[in-house]
Amino acid sequence: MGASINNLSTPLHSGRGWGKVSFFIARRYLFSKKSTNAINVISGISVVGVAVATMALVVTLSVFNGFSDLVATLFTAFDPQLELTPKEGKTAPADDPVLTEIRQLPQVSVATECVEDLALVAYRDRQAMVTIKGVDDNFDQLTHIREILYGDGQFELHAADLQYGILGIQLAEQLGMGYRFDEPLKVYTPRREGQVDITAPEEGFVEDELYSPGVLFAVMQAKYDKGYVLTSVGFARRIFDQQGMLSSLALRLKPGSDFEAVKSEIKRIAGDRYHVRDRYEQQDETFRIMKVEKLIAYIFLTFILMVACFNIIGSLSMLIIDKREDVVTLRNLGASDRQISQIFLFEGRMISAFGAVIGIVMGLLLCWIQQTFGIIALGSSAGSFIVDAYPVSVHFTDVLLVFVTVLVVGFLSVWYPVRYFSKRLLDM
Fold this sequence. Notes:
The chain is 52% helix and 18% strand.
């Protein structure tokens, strides 16, 4: 080591030159054999600790991304690309000029009028509160509803005078139905006008019937499968007394359209009269909960990373003591106390950086294995869940966040200890 220092041609008093020297010395300290073998062991443990914590961060965040993407694909089959809802009140006129202008945009491929509200349904001796969602006949062109239908029938909302109701699969089970039900489904909604006669309370409700088209839908989300009945918009308008009105206007854009640009244009036309939401914004509550859970997991794992960085502090403390003679040599060559401390700061930062790189590579490898082979299953019995194995989705932004987090935590965790131990050593 002494020979290396004596042969240095860069002036030690030059700030820029000393940065190169300190990095060179720190690199030699990291890879060279120490006089005490325990220092090498602790340094290796430090790298491993940081790498394991980094790997855990990458894998955990990727699993949360996988669940989020999975939920998004499930909602995609039922939710439209864009949805406009009134900012005031529950309904708006279907012939509103603003809505007409939006329908006529060249990028709009399908526009569907929707009317939905709560109702009581009854089948034989069972009842349930549900959301009746009335849609136009082109709803199957708007969404991928046909992909989530089960039964021996087909997507059909009405035929002649018959009005069909397509139930969620959990709702059908709750009411004791199959794909086809022998008796019509009774639908009850309160009358919008007039007063309820307590002697004849049944007069305060509108009653109608829905028949089975021979299919049920399964979004694999209880919000829909247990609480929605899909029917024609004409039936919904009649039973809710909303003739000429709509609860929402659902849109699908033409392939190749600039989604964000079209969304901004629709927002401009809608002004302060309508909310314009994409699929994620329509399920904002669900995705917000998932983001909070992901953030909490990130925070907890960051604390574990901080604990792992304590190994770096122990390694550097022993290294400072081990290199006492080198420190004396450097001081005799004119290095300041701050410049000497910089060597050990570089040492700690290099351990953090190596641990971060190794951990990210290991994490990405584990994610690839899980994506390819599904090693870790969700349950012991196949088919019990929507997917058999934990879903994984690696996002570049998360990998970058993990790398920066490890570097920042590692750099901050060694700064004060190095300053403290270096000062104690230099004062001896």
